[in-house]
């Protein structure tokens, strides 16, 4: 005889204006900075906050998907959206895409109250400007405040531009262990060991905020970069050819991979690495040879 089902306990949530709840725009920026995934645009990191724009004020938040090479110029506003807010959002997007064409850029407007009128206006030019509109609302549950983010417009038509250099903020190994896991960070050590079996100049790991790269003790040489996650690691090969042949071999081995901007990207779990060590060793060492022959 099955056990009786315990009824789900319902709790009443009361809508509340964020300013009435004591929320400021600065506080909301801090919340998003600490947990960028809360807005529903994927696994993003905060590249900059209150980013100064020449003759155009400050961009609230610059978010980045480093692996996908996408950037999101986010402007937020409590209360009702107005014309100046929409113009500012598009202006900051345009400044950033012109200055850093190596990324795909998307304007993000985050506001508490977006009227139908302004949503219609945004929709008119959304075919030429990749833009996402997110509405944030507050709910009071007992003495707690819940933020609810809802995507109400998404017209991303992102384009590929020329490559550009990215300055990465230096971190350390412990930072990556805390962000990912000891097991996935250990994969970078195993890859480095394979690389140094054939490298003319021994390589070291460089711990940056957005990826783990390589250097020769003097200067960077990121022909392979790593981005550990909790249960897997993303590896990007920047000096490896022919790409299609490698993708086919990876596919035959059951490994997830793709090509982006002429870079080969592979997703690996610790088990994937051990099961396909011969193939991965061949790839890593071929990447070294390709890089060092230039």
The structural domain count equals 2
Whole-angstrom Rg: 23 Å
Number of strands: 13
Count the helices. How many?
8
Order of helices and strands: EHEEEHEHEEHHEEEEHEEHH
Q: Unreliable stretches, pLDDT < 50, 5 or more residues?
A: 157-167
Strand content: 25-35%
How far apart are the first and last residues' alpha carbons, in Å? 73 Å
CATH class label of the largest domain: Alpha Beta
Helix content: 25-40%
Largest sheet: 7 strands, mixed
Task: Jot down its keywords.
8 helices, globular, 294 residues, 4-stranded antiparallel beta sheet, 32% strand, alpha+beta, Trna Endonuclease, Chain: A, domain 1
What's the structural blueprint in terms of helices and strands?
Elements: E1 14-16, H1 25-34, E2 45-53, E3 57-65, E4 70-80, H2 83-99, E5 104-113, H3 116-125, E6 131-141, E7 144-154, H4 173-179, H5 182-196, E8 204-207, E9 212-215, E10 224-228, E11 233-237, H6 243-252, E12 256-260, E13 263-268, H7 270-275, H8 277-292
